[in-house]
Amino acid sequence: MSSTQKVIVFGSTGAVGTHLVTILSKNQPTWEIHAITRNSSTKNFAGLTNVKVIQGDPNNKEEVLKLSADKDIIYACIGFPRYERKYWAKHWPIIVDNLLEGSSQTPDQKLVFCDNLYAYDANQDIISPSSKTVPPSNRSKPAIRAMLREKFQTRMDQRPESITVVGGSDFFGPLVTNASFLGDTFTKVILDGTSKPLAIGSSKAIHDFCYVPDFSNALYIASISEQAYGKFWICPHSVKG
């Protein structure tokens, strides 16, 4: 991989995207990094001289094509403001199609996609990238993610060197606020000591959680590793049973 790359990060001001842009800037000071956000006045990357903040919307196909046209790597760390099935069913297919087309404008472009683990069938003791997934449809959030996975698999079958997908479980850590139940309603209230933390899930089952800076670093490592492309991955989690 060339020491001078032009890359773009969609979803750059979320928890994952913010950490990823910082990691890219510090580890690849010769790269030109375009941080895409709906609000170009963000101050998240002050002091990172190789980062340029640009306003853009991944829902807009023309904008995605224009912004991605000359980029070597397209990173997607997009999260939605609404956590609803109908919203996902409407917007996720559009955004993924835009990203797939935007990262296919030149033969050497690569797409690095930040995923979750929703698509995997929950009725399994152990989940790995090769585990069974739920049937794809727009009837549930897991099924919507499985539908997106089919789109990624098609790209992997056609051009395996051009895409890698890295998934992780629910996040905790710096910048994770109300987007995860381990954020404001759990770790924040523990730190503040203001009220009892809210935890969701069975106390008899082991749950994996993903430290968000580690996940962002996993995306970076995958993006610079040729052997990572053409595959689905799950970021390592540090939960011991």
Tell me the strand percentage band.
15-25%
Number of helices: 6
End-to-end Cα distance: 39 Å
Uncertain ranges: none
Q: Based on CA inertia axes, which overall geometry fits?
A: globular
Q: In what order do the strands lie side by side in the largest sheet?
A: 3-2-1-4-5-6-9
Instruction: Provide the residue-averaged pLDDT.
Output: 89
Order of helices and strands: EHEEHEHEHEEHEHE
How much helix, percentage-wise, in residues?
Answer: 25-40%
Kindly name the structural category. Answer: alpha/beta
For the sheet with most strands, the description reads: 7 strands, parallel
Query: Measured on Cα atoms, how large is the radius of gyration?
Result: 18 Å
- Give the number of DSSP strands: 9
Please outline what is shown here:
With 241 residues, the chain is of the alpha/beta class.
Break the fold down into its secondary structure elements and pairings.
Layout: E1 6-10, H1 15-27, E2 32-37, E3 51-55, H2 61-68, E4 73-76, H3 85-102, E5 110-115, H4 141-158, E6 163-167, E7 171-172, H5 183-192, E8 210-211, H6 212-223, E9 231-234
Parallel strand pairs: 1-2, 1-4, 2-3, 4-5, 5-6, 6-9, 7-8
Helix pairs in contact: 1-6, 2-3, 3-4
